[in-house]
Amino acid sequence: MKIAFIAHDRKKDEMVNFVTAYEHVFEGRELYSTGTTGQRIMEATDLKINRFMSGPLGGDQQIGALVAKDELDLIIFLRDPLMAQPHEPDITALLRLCDVYGIPVATNIATAEILVKAIDRGDFAWRDLVHKYKPGVDE
After folding, report:
1. Which residues are catalytic?
2. HEC states along the chain?
3. CA atoms of 13 and 15, how far apart (whole Å)
4. Distance between CA atoms of residues 95 and 91, nearest Å
5. Which backbone phi and psi does 36 adopt, to 5 degrees?
């Protein structure tokens, strides 16, 4: 399972606390993140994060590219709804791609917790089927 983490500046502490609390669920998964968020998570946990650029410098678009290639299974994107973001079009494009490709995305801590508990219960096994029967992939 491949999971990406993104957090706006005022949500980074919340993301680090969340990932720390559920580190046992994220262990052994392939993890991705935008730059600073990934660095902060790695400093607080033993998790290895594949880091992209920061969001405003293209990190959101790099994660969007993985979505477009069906190479992500879940995104936890803690957005700050009270602060305008200079790269809002990139954020909108990423969320649109998640809708187009059916990638679950949590934009707040409550939804993130529900999705992580689903991972822990094994409810994301359907993503394995998506990958197994992807057009062009030998069975």
Report:
1. 60
2. CEEEEEECHHHHHHHHHHHHHCHHHHCCCEEEECHHHHHHHHHHCCCCEEECCCHHHCHHHHHHHHHHCCCCCEEEEECCCCCCCCCHHHHHHHHHHHHHHCCCEECCHHHHHHHHHHHHHCCCHHHHHHHHCCCCCCC
3. 5
4. 6
5. -65, -40
Give buried/exposed letters for 91-119 (b at 16+ CB in 10 A, else e): beebbebbeeeebbbbbeeeebeebbeeb
Integer CA distances (angstroms), 25 to 20, 74, 116, 134, in order: 10, 13, 7, 26
For β-strands 49-51 and 74-78, DSSP reports them as unpaired
> What CA–CA distances, in Å, run from 134 to 3, 62, 98, 127, 129?
19, 22, 17, 10, 8
Q: Express each pLDDT in 86-133 by its tens digit.
A: 778 788 899 999 999 999 999 999 999 999 999 999 888 766 666 666
Render pLDDT for 4-40 as a digit per residue (tens, 0 to 9).
999 999 999 999 999 999 999 999 999 999 999 999 9
How much is the pLDDT for 137?
Answer: 47
